[in-house]
Amino acid sequence: METNLHFRLKQIVFLICLLFWLTYSFGQKTIRLDSCGINDACEKAIVISNVVSDQAFVCIEGCNLNAGSSPFNNDCGIGDFPTVWFEVLPDGNATLMNINVKSDEFDAPTITLFHLITDCSHLQQVGLTQSSISCIVGSNGEAEAIGSNVGGNEIYYIAISSLNSSGGHFNICVNTISQASACVTSAQIQITARSGGGSLAGPFLPGETVSVCMNVNSYTAAGNGCQWFQGLIPIFGNGWDPSSFDANGQPLNGTINGEPFGLPGNGLYSAATWDWFTNVGYHHDNTFFQVGDLDGNGTVEMCNLLYDVDCPNLGGITGGCCGPCWANAGDPLPPGWFAYGINGTCPTLGPPPTVDWGDGNSCGGGMGPWHFCFDLTVRDFPECLSDPTTSDLTLGFFTTADGETGSWTGGPSVCALDQPRKLTLPMMCRKVIDLGTEELPDACAGSEFHYEINEPGVAHWTWTVEPSWAVIDTVMEGDNGYVINSLLHSQQEAPETVTYIFTGQDTSTQNTVIKKVEFTMWSQIELSFFTPPNIHVDSIVVCSNDTNSVFIILEARGGTGNYDYTWWPYGNNTPTIEISPPFQSTIHIVTVTDDFCTESKSINFIVDQNCVINHIDIDNDESNDDPKKEDPPPGGNIMNNHIDTRSASAIDAESIRIYPIPSKDRITVEWPKSLLNPTQLFIYDTKGIVLRTLMIDPHAVNRMELDISDLASGVYIVTLHSDQKVKSGRMIKM
């Protein structure tokens, strides 16, 4: 009896070992059990082996409970929450990697992918999916990264963590694809806006509107028999509210490159027109494509066995017959946008797309882009809790060429290898408590924004700012009571509304709490100094014995424009000041304020004791004149501006003759004959205000007579502008 019992035990042990060997060799479920936390460092990564391109997913169990965090952090918080590591060595054929993580023990798995450069201290982060996302944050216990670019025979590390959780057990599944897209060379799913505020990566809130673009950025017809892009079949998770779609399943108010769908000629090329069709057939047999109501919500979806670990094998789809008109187009695909209007080899005019070619113009590459854009609304609370699918915010799309769905006579299309795009957005399916918008006083760019976010019942906040460029911040989260100190930044002169959008969670009800803070930001005041005639200066140098006053003109821009001026040391309150001799070296400081902004600027006023001003005595006797330095007519004089503005070295004084001085109703302005291309003449008052602007006749001699009878008695500055120089002088009106 004992012998028989011993023999039976041996049989049982043998069968258990055999079962384990068979599971390891041929199964997809579990080929190795992970003890929690043993692989919480890159150097201790568990190897996921036997990943062969174009084969089924390899899945193993994992656990990050009690694991340590990563020594470095990223947007998925791998430096804050328990993180475990896995190693994958794709075969030499691999070009794409697909990763899926599921857990029943925590809500938000995260995926980060790294390429090994030399060792674990030299890792390069890999962009996930064709959208090159830095890391994936899942929801409802699942995270997925589809179609990430990898290289064959290269080692990769996958870091799995649990956002805002201590973690638990999970399954991780990996496979690789040998051939990337043959026709669509670049495509992505892009979230362009959200009504609830916050990061465009989510999590998204019940009832909010999300703006989506499904982009085919580039398409080639080279190497595939000159097939053109013809169809985009969108896939939507059941977490999107049915009110987002019309009766045929099309998102409402969508556009193709900004044009409404159905508008004749809305395609990129020739007469191509894009519209929504519900009964387009697929021309060829395909065992990987599966079509059916995959989430049980009454609508037809599509999946690919090679890319989706959850894709059920329903037997594939069966093609039709025959080109070029395809009376039997094949099994119908889910509804989608298809192009028609460019008549192919089939004489029948489209629609349907089956009898036409796609949207193209050559047999080469570089075609595109196409942007399929629309808005979707997230299911409201508590509807999003109805079942696990009603919080599924999956977005995806398949593409087809006219060799798959149009008037084309070839065999099975190589474009069927184009990978589907898929992105599952995280959702926070909780009731949203909106605390409203708090209006704050206006602020000025360049100043600091100070605000304490403090509301009862909320332990922690995250926030975003719109527009994002309005602040220069790296910290966008904090505990309740956190004080924000942000430097405000403007990119325009016009005022900008700045909105802080805070998101928190009520610790007692677990409801989501939203609060907005809003204020108007004015552009920073910018100050510049000028001297007549509108010459920008940073410092002014005058001769110690100069007897002419110097005018400093201040130009202010930005802010509200309602400026007040204060000059130091003289206390002037005008935008222009006059400095009269005798001069002293001084730093002049002006402070400009408006309703919300303040700005100060200084200019260095330097007196040069070594330069000499040679004044010309008027003797009215021309017999003793040097012919090269002729006096003006009797009663005239030469008035000179002896200012060296340093940053305006093109000023050439001592060159304009203005006579008679003093003048009554008319003056003559004369300049050297050597001056090339004089263009304009300006007359300023002593405040630097332009009173007269005159164009110089290019055929005129080197003088100009002016009527000044309308000017009041006083001193004026006259400037003459040429291509390269500015010449100035002074005029006295009696």
Number of strands: 48
Q: Tell me what portion of residues adopts beta-strand conformation.
A: 35-45%
**SSE class:** mainly beta
Uncertain spans: 1-33, 613-654
Mass-distribution shape: elongated
- Main pleated sheet: 6 strands, mixed
Distance between the termini: 140 Å
The level of helicity is under 10%
Number of domains: 6
Radius of gyration: 38 Å
Name the average pLDDT.
84
DSSP summary: helix tally: 2
Defining traits:
mainly beta; Jelly Rolls; 734 residues; 6 domains
Task: Please explain how this structure is put together.
There is one protein chain. With 734 residues, the chain is mainly beta. It folds into 6 domains: 1-28; 31-177, Sandwich (Jelly Rolls), CATH 2.60.120.380; 184-425, no CATH class; 432-521, Immunoglobulin-like, CATH 2.60.40.10; 526-608, Immunoglobulin-like (Sandwich); 622-733, Immunoglobulin-like (Sandwich). Helix content is 4%, strand content 39%. The chain contains 2 helices and 48 strands. The strands form 12 sheets. Strands 1, 3, 5, 6, 7 and 9 form a 6-stranded mixed sheet that branches. Strands 25, 26, 28, 29, 31 and 32 form a 6-stranded mixed sheet that branches. A hairpin with a 5-residue loop joins β44 (680-684) and β45 (690-695). The chain starts with a helix and ends with a strand. 38% of the residues are buried. The model is unreliable at 1-33 and 613-654 (pLDDT under 50). InterPro entries: Secre_tail. Pfam families: Por_Secre_tail.
